[in-house]
Amino acid sequence: QPLAMHGADHDHHDSQDPHVWRDPQNVKIMVKNIAQALIAADPAGRDYYTQRLAAYHKELDQLQSWVQQEISTIPEKNRKVLTSHDAFGYLAKRFGIRILSPQGVSTEAEASAKEVAMLIREIKKSGIRALFMENISNPKLIEQIARETGANTGLKLYSDALSREANANSYLAMYRSNIRNLVAGMRSNQ
């Protein structure tokens, strides 16, 4: 069923969630595997690849520390958001955020009227005021939900793609932009 909720207290996936890069710890594993493959293909470049790996791991550690610091400014009861599709389950689990979504992990999934009505009731009950539209989603469903709940839209999350915009032209920039917007949105929750 398309209504998905993820977070520290709910980690159920109706289908396989491909968004593993939402957890910086997973990215550390991925870049280590890439470095090892590059070393195997180009043994003469071992020192360079090893240095770059160490430098990027340090940046990922700094990113994770910064994220934890930013999220800690939001009371736990307010760490909840609604996104137009569920691309943030790994982030939610890592940093203790509850994410509700009218679609599942695919942007092609359609939420039924019954599921949207359930979601609207949940939003009203939970005090969520932070609604996000990812950069690849059709905003009509989120706009409808915002009208019916009084929640705010306007902040953007980058879900499945980077952007030419400076705030999302690299993994680190995109992650920081998303966290800044998530935190700003969660500040309005009740």
Characterization of this structure:
There is one protein chain. By secondary structure, this protein is an alpha/beta fold. It contains six helices and six strands; from the N terminus they run ββααβαβαβαβα. The chain has helices spanning 24-41, 46-71, 89-95, 113-126, 140-149, 171-186; strands at 4-7, 10-11, 80-83, 98-101, 131-134, 156-157. Strands 2-1-4-3-5-6 form a six-stranded mixed sheet, covered by helices on one side. A hairpin with a 2-residue loop joins strand 1 (4-7) and strand 2. The longest helix has 26 residues, at 46-71. Residues 1-14 have low confidence and may be disordered.
Summarize the structure.
The chain is an alpha/beta fold. It contains 6 helices and 6 strands. The chain has a 6-stranded mixed β-sheet, covered by helices on one side.
Primary descriptors:
single chain; 190 residues; alpha/beta; 6-stranded mixed β-sheet; 6 strands; 48% helix
The H/E string reads: EEHHEHEHEHEH
Biggest sheet overview? 6 strands, mixed
Rg, Cα atoms, Å: 18 Å
Task: Report strand order across the widest sheet.
Answer: 2-1-4-3-5-6
| Helicity, as a percent range | 40-55%
Structural class: alpha/beta
Instruction: Count up the helices.
Output: 6
Could you give the count of β-strands?
Answer: 6
Shape: elongated
Q: List the uncertain runs.
A: 1-14
Mean pLDDT: 81
Q: Tell me the β content.
A: 5-15%
Distance between the termini: 28 Å
